[in-house]
Amino acid sequence: IMLSEVKKLRKILIFTNITMVFYYIGIEFLTGVEFQGGVPTLLYRQWLVILYFIFFVLMLFYMNRSYQNWLEKEVSLAREQELHSLSVYSKQIEGLYEELRAFRHDYANILASLKEGIDQDDMSMVRNIYNAVLEDSGKFIQHSRFNIGRLTNIDNDAIKSLLSAKFLEAESHHIEVELEVKDKIGAPDIPLLDYVRLVSILCDNAIEAAIEAEKPAMIIACFYQGDDYLLIIDNTTKEERVPVELIYQKNYSSKGFGRGVGLKTVNQMLKKYPNMSVQTSSKNYHFRQTIRIKKSFD
Q1: Which residues form the Sensor histidine kinase NatK-like C-terminal domain (predicted)?
Q2: Cα separation of 275 and 273, whole Å?
């Protein structure tokens, strides 16, 4: 939608500029005819000014209306995506709840078996039950899919839905994802739409790079450090080290490293918001970006 609307508005602006050139030529021509040829053209020039003024006002009104329609479509699309992500997130939580409920039922049976072994003072039975069941149950509880429950600590629905969608997308590519949102956290001190775009770009890049890694893995962490809002996105890479000193340079393509999406937009945001900084590092087959957003004091 965005690309087609931009192209349409660009064509309208070009057309308006061309008509302005012809208007200027027409005015100059009529003025020259009057002063050099002695033919009165004042009335024609007045009508030309009036007509062009009406045309110009109508074009401004049309472009303003088109821009408003585009904004409405963007907001509507963003809402639909947020609702879809929240729906997927809710279904994932429901699925985890069902798994835990089934596990709780099985666990009760296991404890009953343990009690029988303890009552009979049969340590071999207790040991066998532990080795067969309880040791594996720890792995079940610690599985990465239960990390998505930590998103409940994020107070902002838009950020929560986006991270849940990226979490599930990464898991669909068999990437081991770890979420670290231990404390309650809201939105940072920059416009929410720009922050969501930033997180989306960095997560997409991390997923793209992790897919090609020998051990696909990804870490997303959100927390406060003093008054600063920190977001850390870490992923494994195919290369031992990505040249971080080059990825933000103009015309540099890092697509081979999986970092080529949206870096120009990230760079523009850094210039737009002086309270935001990005620290990038890469070593030992890991690529990490730390976003620090300082609290704005009005």
Answers
A1: 192-293
A2: 5
Instruction: Please tell me the pTM assigned to this model.
Output: 0.58
Predicted local confidence at residue 110, as pLDDT: 66
Q: Look at residue 145 in the predicted model and tell me its pLDDT.
A: 53
Residue 275 has phi, psi (to 5 degrees) of -85, 5
Cβ contact 169:211 at 8 Å: no
Is residue 228 within 8 A of residue 292, CB to CB? The reply is yes
pLDDT of amino acid 96: 60
> Which run of H or of E encompasses 224?
strand 217-225
Cα–Cα dist 288/292, whole Å: 13
- Rounded to whole angstroms, the Cα distance separating 88 from 166 reads 11
Residue-wise pLDDT tens digits, 227-261: 899 999 999 998 888 887 777 655 554 444 444 44
Read off the pLDDT of residues 19-62 as tens digits, 9 standing for 90 and up: 888 888 988 888 888 888 778 888 888 898 899 899 889 988 88
Q: How far is the C-alpha of 66 from the C-alpha of 6, rounded, in Å?
A: 10
Q: Identify the domain containing residue 287 by its residue range.
A: 147-293
Please, how many CA atoms are within 13 Å of residue 283, restricted to the half-sphere of its CB?
2
For residue 245, being part of any structural domain is answered with yes
In a domain, 131, yes or no: no
